[in-house]
Design brief:
Blueprint lengths: L1 H24 L2 H17 L6 H4 L16 H6 L5 E10 L6 E9 L2 E6 L2 E7 L5 E5 L5 E5 L10 E4 L3 H12 L5 E4 L2 E7 L2 E7 L7 E3 L5 E3 L1
Helix pairs in contact: 2-5
Organism: Chaetorhynchus papuensis
Protein name: MYO1H protein
Pfam families: Myosin_TH1
């Protein structure tokens, strides 16, 4: 019994040393990757289609460089540390028209940017929720407070959905507010009104306004 206890203790010490050695040998970049992927797993594992396929794809620090942004935009958000920039498609809350935009994540806020204009700013401290579907689409809805400062929730389509949501969660420190929904979700249009988005499976991916006025994501 004593020998077995000693053997078990030695095994644990050996394992601890191996883990420590492995962690010490990690580059800062590799460590950051692992930390991000742990968050992605906690949010999406077993919940969203495409998650397993995303495991082998490293997250990039950013999809666009800071100097890809218009100087006017840089001027407007000066003093904030820009952490991540990616092209997105934004859907209008009313007519659901698709617009090419940039999503800029700083240390304290998320910005939806059109060329030289900031279309919407969401301070992380006010962020109410982040919703995605359980299917393989790249739609993310950023839920904001119902107040005069905000026009309504932000509907975006992202090519790198797992990366975008993970970066947003880590920067905002709001992992707990992410929902992976089935079937449909409600979003705020502004001034107390709500809209509905429906997620469905079909032969080809598309996003359109159906006859009932709902945004349908196939």
């Amino acid at each position: 019994g004593f020998l077995m206890q000693t053997s078990e203790m030695l095994r644990k010490i050996c394992m601890r040393n191996l883990v420590r050695k492995y962690c010490r040998g990690l580059t800062a970049e590799r460590k950051a990757q692992l930390q991000q992927k742990v968050v992605t797993s906690a949010i999406f594992s077993g919940k969203k289609e495409g998650y397993l396929g995303s495991l082998s794809q490293p997250f990039l620090d950013t999809r666009l460089k800071e100097n890809d942004l218009n100087p006017k935009v840089l001027q407007l958000i000066r003093g904030e540390n820009i952490k991540y920039v990616t092209p997105v498609v934004k859907y209008d809350r009313n007519g659901f028209k698709a617009r090419e935009r940039l999503l800029v994540l700083t240390q304290s806020s998320a910005y939806v940017v059109e060329m030289a204009k900031i279309k919407q700013k969401i301070e992380y401290s006010t962020l109410k929720g982040i919703s995605t579907s359980n299917l393989s689409d790249g739609i993310v809805v950023i839920h904001v407070p119902d107040d005069n400062k905000q026009k309504g929730d932000v509907i975006l389509q992202c090519e790198h959905i797992f990366e975008v949501v993970t970066k947003l969660c880590i920067l905002a420190n709001k992992q707990s507010v992410v929902k992976v929904v089935k079937g449909s979700l409600r979003f705020r249009v502004g001034s107390g009104k709500e809209g509905t988005m429906v997620f469905t499976v079909g032969p080809e991916p598309q996003v359109f306004k159906d006859k009932t006025g709902q945004l349908t994501v196939v």
